[in-house]
Structure formats: C-alpha cells, structure tokens
Amino acid sequence: MNKLTLSIALGVNIIALPTLAATEVTTLSDFFNDKGEVTTKDNYAVYETARQYLKVQQAAGVNKFQHKRVLTPTDQQPVVRMNRDTFYSMAVINVSQGATVTLPEIPEGKYMSMEVITQDHRIQAMQYGAGTFDLSTHVGDHVYIIVRTDATFTKEEVHAIQDKMRIDAKATEPFFAPQVKKSTFEEVERDLKTEMPVLLKRDGAQATFGMFTDPNDQSKELYTKEKYAVGAAIGWGGAQMQDNIYEVSGNYPADVCHQATFDDPKNQAFWSVTVYNKQGFMFDDVANVSSNTATKNADGTYTVSFGCGDDAPNNIKTKNDSGVFNLAFRHYMPSQKVRDGFRVIPLLKAVK
C-alpha cells in the first residue's frame, strides 16, 4: 500500500481511497499521469493537498523552507485566491519522529503566524509570534506549514526574519503520493468551484464555515463533507475561523464601478480585500487594499472602490480579460464583532 493511501486509510474514513497499484512519486513533475488514480469529489482534497506538498518538496526538499522573498507576483500564484497581505514561507516536514519550527522575534504590533495543514487538508489552529513550536499530525508522516509574515515589512526586513526561521526534524524521508490522472483531477476541480456560488446563495455570510477544520479540536463541529471539498478547490490552505474569517463574493461585471462603505471591524490583526478574475487569480500589480494601507473617511469608516477610477477612495482596478471580477475579504485574527456576523460584502453596491 502506498504511503498516502495508508495514511488516509488510517486517519480519515470519509474519503474514497485510491487503489493500491498506483506509482509513488516525490515530485510535482511526476504527479500527473494518464494511468494515474481517478479523482472524485470524495478524494479531491487529498489529491490537491498532495499536489501542494509535492510542489514545495520539489522546490525546496523535505524539512526545508521555501521562502517567498517578494509579495505574490501575478505570474507565480500556486493556488487560487492567493493574496499580497503577507510574505509566505512554506515547508513540507516529516514529523514521524518529532519535529519543531522556530520563529524569530519580530517588532511588537507586527503580524507573523504559522499554520499547519495535514495530508488530508485538515487545518490546525495557528501559532503566533516568536517561539519554538512542536509539530504533530493525526494522519501520515508529514505536514505542510505556512508562515505568514507582515506585508508592511520591507523586503530587507522580511528576508532577515525568514533567514532566522529554523526547522528541526529527526526523520528525513520525503513525502510520497500516488500518481493522478490529470483530466479527472481538473474536471472535478472545475465542478467543485462551480458549487461556491450555490453555497453563497444558500448560506450567505456562513458560506465558508466548515471548510477549514481540525478533527482534534472544537472546529470539527463545523465540518461538512460538502464544504470540505469545495474549500480545497476555491481556497486551499485556508485558516480556521478563529484565525481568519473569509468573505468570498460571486462575480461582478468588470466595467461597472462598485463601492462598499463600512465601519472599522476592529480585528485583532487587520482586514484586507483582494480582487480576482473569474478563475480566482489576481490579474493586476495592485490587487488589494487593507487596513494597513487604506485611507479612512472623516467619520472613521472605510470606503473601498472597485473599478471606479484613480480618484475614487481606496480604488482597485477590475478590468481583466475574463470580463468579471470577484473578491475575497479577509479578517485576520477576527474581532468578536466579525465572529458575531459583521460582513462587508453585503454592503457592496454598484455605483452609476
């Protein structure tokens, strides 16, 4: 039995498991194969997670950081709905014999978090700030970590911080995954993405609730099989609700000005909003506005504009080849106000 199959079989019984004859691979280049495993909605999250693991492992190796030295460029977006809110550092770590991550001190008031993603795309609660953190998993031998570091640091400052990050792991065997048939993977992924508008219409502000959870903490009460699968397709690696609350919109015409005016949500960290094309990718060098960069109105509220021209308050361009735009509003370390239901996207209006 290949290692991914064994891991998932031991850890999660809701997923349709791959067959036992699949070839095991350790690099993204070898992941897709016409004779590989068939993807279904039940196993998509596992295979997408394997793809992300292999991508970082191929670039950096096991137990080593892949540091993103600049904010996410438009031509290097590894997953849908990336953002430029933070600098990213990722790693695939073998935790089978124990492992830790050490993060350095940063100035007070700055943001740095570490997220752990297990092989079945379950999301552990974040760790914040400096320290040495023990790593563990309920399934398999490896975890994927994301360290997010404040975007307000200069490149020189964040590079110095990244260079002080350290991984200590006793086991060095790489992550293995079965090969997957690309055509079925892409077909299922497209189908899952089309389910997001249905969730938005049905569940409104709670559309993303239950997508990113851990079977070993209280977040498991929100888990649903449906949202687990869709979450992996529309926002792989998303955080638990206690760490980030996401607002994801439907599509709006890119040639129509839209604005939202809202009270300060007073998050413990910050808020941001990022604009994407129909496929869920950033398309312009200025893709987001955040509470770190936005100008407040005289009354303390914020107005964010989308496709309204350079003179509009906190404007983000929306014109792109897909003809539509959508957005994701993120609340980092959300306030109680946001946890109680405050949302910005319902306030978005077309402006004639």
How would you describe what is shown here?
The structure is a single chain. This protein is globular. The longest helix is centred in the first third of the chain and has 17 residues, at 44-60. It has seven helices and 20 strands. With 352 residues, the protein is α+β, with helices and mostly antiparallel strands. The protein has helices spanning 3-11, 44-60, 155-163, 182-194, 196-203, 225-235, 336-339; strands at residues 24-25, 32-37, 66-67, 86-94, 99-103, 112-118, 127-128, 131-134, 142-150, 166-169, 177-178, 244-248, 252-253, 258-262, 270-276, 288-290, 302-306, 315-316, 324-332, 349-350. The protein is 20% helix and 26% strand. Strands 3-4-9-6-7 form a five-stranded antiparallel sheet. Strands 12, 13, 15, 16 and 19 form a five-stranded antiparallel sheet that branches. A four-stranded mixed sheet has the order 18-17-14-20, with no helix packed on it.
